[in-house]
Amino acid sequence: MNAEQNALLTRIGPGTACGAVLRSYWQPAALVDEFDPALDPAMRQRPVKAVRLLGQDLVLFKDDQGRWGLLDRDCPHRNADLSFGRHEGDGLRCPFHGWKFDAQGKCLDTPAEPVGSKLCERVKQRAYPVIERSGVLFAWMGEPGKAPPFPTFDCFEAPATHTFAFKGMWHCNWLQAFEVGIDPAHTSFLHRFLNDAPLDDIGANPAGKQFRSASVGEVDGQRWPMTRIMREFHRPDISFEARPWGFQLTTLRPMTDELTHVRVTHEIFPQTFVIPLSETLTITQMHVPIDDTHTYWYAFFTSFGEPVDRLAMRNQRTQFIPPPAFIPKAGRQNNWGFDAEEQRSTTFLGMGEEDINVHDQWAVESMGAIQDRTREHLGTSDKVIMANRRLLLKAIEDVQAGRPAPGAADPAQAAAMHGPDTVDGIAPAGTWGTWWIKQVDAKREGAPWTPKQPQQQPA
User: What is the pTM of this model?
Assistant: First the structure.
């Protein structure tokens, strides 16, 4: 990749080509939990937050009628910062000259103007539509009135009892943050444990030990933890197929003549991946640019079994990534917690067992704020990375030509934006294609909430 292409794919501010693509999709702006006084006491008196999203400075607030407002942060009078505005129930009032705006950006008052002034009627602050889904506030940052239907993926269709959302900041560009999630080969190395723990010691909602949990299926009557499979079978056969939302990734790790490990995951273009966490829990993770050099990942945990323990899951994660800023405690400033003895004896990386998010964080932050892709050398195992970059370049070309961006941005594809199904398991080598379909059908049929939709055809 040359330097011009790298800049094209990584710069996302207003007026940029890639920024125009990302603004064709609904984007997470904040967790609903960020307005919970238990996590941020400042919200008790003043539910207002400064937000930076896609290189734009915004202010997010909730009025007394429960309506969300997301406005450009600079007051249209003389550009003072509205995130310091007075929350007056029905809107925000700028402390500079008292101009007041409601959640839709309508100017309600210009109190320093002469009595009878009509100036207020001619002023409107840019407001961005906000909708709430699965504990996250999504914003439409594209052309007003052109938002596509919100996708009906499982993580957004599941009831609140069966979903949990969390986020964390990485100090790097959005694309390198996203690319780690669509790289099936890295798990055998970056997340490798040098020994296996008893599966019954993991707990119901592991914070970072998903690779300790068992894959579906058995070998000689034993259930294998994923970490053992990833460690012992580290040359995966990776393939991908186009789907309405992006790509379906299939990763095969042949184990014996009779058995193979199958992992089916998904890339939802342009910045989301879907992976199995356990037999009944799925992670849908979005990578949202704060600006060119900072990214928030938003993770949606969706249960197809028992209700999730939201408090326990939150507490497990806030010990590593504390609110209200959700900046990890580990980072470049402390070498991401690197321990040479641990690297020798316990983990391949040496950066802890409890929170594997820090493994990915190190990988993407250590590349630099914006990865210099002119210096990389890609191999066969990077085929999905290359395919995604080609898709992103094509999307940029389409949007510049006035054509719709692909997948969830295209209203014509809205009906196909459901699922997608994942699996992680040990299957009969010759019939894994039908085996995984049966597994996800059984999971969906057994879930208390899932819509019963026709599943994909076997590979």
Answer: 0.94
